[in-house]
Amino acid sequence: QVLVEESGGGLVQPGGSLRLSCTASGSLSSLYAMGWYRQAPGKQREFVAEVYENSMINYGNSVKGRFLISKDNAKNTISLQMNNLKPEDTAVYYCHRISFGRDYWGQGTQVTVSS
Fold it and tell me: For the purposes of burial, counting CB atoms within 10 Å of the CB of 58, is it exposed (0-12), middle (13-18) or buried (19 or more)?
């Protein structure tokens, strides 16, 4: 049993910042990677960012230079610092964990960027 939970979503104005957090709990195996995906209404799920056990990081092209992912292995937690937010960043953000070849997903947290 593995539970992945996101938090920190909400409403923010364009140009503002928001920080998302994700914690994995339960019967956890060794970490391979954790990251974030997002899905806007009418669009397919999009890769945002991921961080590996060795701390290597990848970002989606649409968020490079604006978002920063970080991890705390001891707490099984990752964060996503989102800066200079744009209306097109509006989406449900999902936390993703890969451990021992298995994938786990959170239920998502809504981020809305609007005046």
Answer: middle
Residue 74 tokens read as 């001891």
In the predicted structure, residue 109 carries a pLDDT above the cut 90:
yes
**What is the residue type of 80?**
L
Vertex 62, ends 35 and 102: CA angle to 5°? 20
> Strand 18-26 relative to strand 77-82: parallel, antiparallel, unpaired?
antiparallel
pLDDT recorded at residue 28: 80
Q: Could you please report the per-residue DSSP string of 7-51? A: E--EEE-TT--EEEEEEEEES---EEEEEEEEE-TTS--EEEEEE
3-class secondary-structure state, position 2: strand
Strand-pair category, 57-59 with 2-7: unpaired
Residues near 40 by beta carbon (within 8 Å), at least 6 away in sequence: 46, 88, 90, 91, 92
Is it the case that residue 91 has pLDDT exceeding 90? yes
Rounded to 5°, the CA angle 9-50-68 comes to: 60
